[in-house]
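Model the whole thing, not chain by chain.
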Amino acid sequence: MTSVLILLLLALGAYLVAVLEAWIASGHLSLATPMLAGIALLGRESIVPRKPDRIFFEVGPVLLLISALLAAVVVPLTPNLIITDLATGALFINAALVYVLVALLMAGWGPDGAYAMVGGWRFLGQLIAYAMLIVMPITAVAMRAESLLTTQIVVSQAGLWNIVYQPVGFALFFVAAMALAFLPPFDLPTATGELAGGVEAEYSGVRLAVLRLGRLVLIITLAAATVVFYLGGWQGPWLPPWAWSALKILAVTATMLLAGRAMPRIREADLLAWCWKLGIPLALLNIFLVGVLVLVFP
Amino acid sequence: MIVGARQGTMTRLRRLVSVSMAREFSTFLIPGPDIARAHGLDIAAAGIQLSASPRHASALLVIGAVPPAMLKAAVVVYAQMMRPRAIFVLGAEDISPLPSADIATGLSQQDLIEGMHQLRTLFAEGAFRPDMSDFDAPVLQTRIEYTCPMHPEVVQSEPGSCPKCGMTLMPRQAQATTGHNHTNHKEVDATANEQTVSSHDHKHHHSMAHDAPTKYTCPMHPEVVQSEPGSCPKCGMTLVPREALATQTHELADMDHGSMDHGAMAFMSMIDVTQDLPRSIDGLPMEWIEVPFGPFFPGLPGGLLLMLTLDGDTVAASDAHTLIENNDFPSGEPMDIASFAEHLTGMDPLVPVSYRLLACRALENAAQVDVFADIARARIGAQERERIASHLGWLALFGRQTGFDWLMRRAASLQLKVQNADFQQVVALRPEITVLMKRLHWTPLLKSRTVGIGRLVSDAKLRGPVARASGICEDARSKDKIYEMLGFTSAVGQGGDAFSRLHVRLEEIFHSLALIEAAGAIALPVPATIGNESGKGEAVVESPRGMARLELTLENGRVSAAQLDTPSTHHLTLIDQLTEQQELADALLAVGSLDLSPWEIQQ
């Protein structure tokens, strides 16, 4: 029952992300836009390119969707509204999202088109940049909660949210999450002006619909994870827990979507250099500081 | 009913789908958003979503008179669109070889909005049709040929087995077109891109010093060796000096094929597979792929075809040309003055005023007519207004290329406002322009994205903002007396990279605003009345892209010969040095920062 409810909520969340995205892009708020766009995609031809790697081509979009859904399994929306409260939940999110890379590589390789291929491999470089900055801040979060249980992580923030307790970790995780969801300015694999859509360029019709749905679910899952790790999850005064979760997740999503519009796309070389030369030392510093705080104020 | 409907009967479900498709519509623009704005069309205000890839577009918008080579390329784009698909033509007469247009209207914002409305209605009613035939055109014809996976030089039109190793030949498509947009090949397909491949010279192979007479060989076919440069008789690739490939060719050429012939290819080692491939500068053997960027690429000006040979995501070689045939003097016949001025005005839709002014000045110079100072000032007003609009248009393209959405929208809408504004309106736009500039100043990542990209040192080829960004204080306006009176100073930058070019253009926008305010009026140049004069005349104009020069001969009041020299023609030749060994995104940014106009390039 919980699973069905969470899946429905995820679908609703993905839909709202699409509404938000269309609103930000066009300036007009229309609740029907994503639905119409979805139906329109289903009505269009979906062709297979000339010399595809058929398995990769078909599996890529589906795997992206599955990977994002898997990560959502351990994200609690209220104390009881969680599909499975794994003992290794915080780590599981990271493990599930590794398949985002595999999915994009497959989707890039599959159609045998240059734009898609470059886009897919670009994301491999991107993974090398963001991967450590997802894991290391989560480590510091788990240190404070003394647990990898996602529900326990939320409970540990009862007095003080992690965004205040470890702001450096939050900043790093937020940026890395945007890079993982290939949102602008980290949209290297799907860059419009550089690769004419990149990984998405050769997909059409129903396959494109699945690929885009996967991306939307990925965004909402990452926003939910950010809320659980840093923004105190369902906690908050006056409103019921589910409302707090929903509000916080939507706020994080909107910030992620808005940030990229105000700046040009990052250079891949810069992304790698900054993540490794600046991001990782900062993440280590964050772990150290949290360690000291945990010891001094147990 | 639309011409490119999808096959199927119109059931109730399909009707619902059609209505959705009509509501959510994305379009692909030919030649591109830059030309749409030049014609005063506000794409965003008409509620049109732009699509980056033809695969995702439902409608093809053809805007204005489109040259034949571009229409041919548009056919390939159309063929790549998914059905149902429609064609909407604004202001063009004949669009063959494209199929007939679903909607054809004039070229105005009103027409655009009404046409889109009609198109949506058509889509809702006729997105599906039971009797559909495939669209085909000679441009799209492909021929199947058979080749051996191990011996690429074996190509024949019939299936069979390889005469060298006996393997079954694999079919592949040999395409006979050149102006394609999104056709991608995993391998350097020499038959497909023969024309462009042969014009490359792989410069980095020349780097090794040698004294002995150079022998040339084909990177793909080591058995081809000759003493003169040229192209390979087997695949048409440009031959490279043999020293560059010495390590592979000298020792391995015989062994390679020798061992393969004896059936040793049961195990395909990486060395065997890659040893004949051209070498990158970093020594890592990778497949080189030749990828077309354009002629309708979202991040480049519409009509420019940039062929990049990619080694991974590094550019190994490039070739750029325009699909627009440009003739400064269309017919051998003498032209009357008015139609000559009109011809030059229409030549480059991106900067009509500059070329009109150039024509007027050259004519006046030939006839030795002087214009009144107030007319000259008003002309400067018009030209500087065009400079602001053109630089804003470049900013919009820069925004689109780098995914800087806000800039793309803001600059595009400002360009539309400035373009045809009168004096008061231009002056009133100053605050809005100032806000845009301030915002750019504080934009994160903008500096790191552009600094050091596309660096150019001073070179005689550089013109206009590109030259001034490299510290060359060259500006045709600085020699003009009236400009001097208006208090003109030229904007000079340093660094010669994309960042510097961006800043020079931003500064010039402000300078132009000040010049317009000082000029006090805006009026389009009109050719002066010239009697039956004869003589030679020349003139220069500092167009937004740099100095353009026109020389012409008048015979009895008619233009009998003319010769034009445009900035983009010179800048096009810089692309090789700008892109070589650059990462793809950096290479594209460097090309974009030149602000090429495919319409003024003379080939």
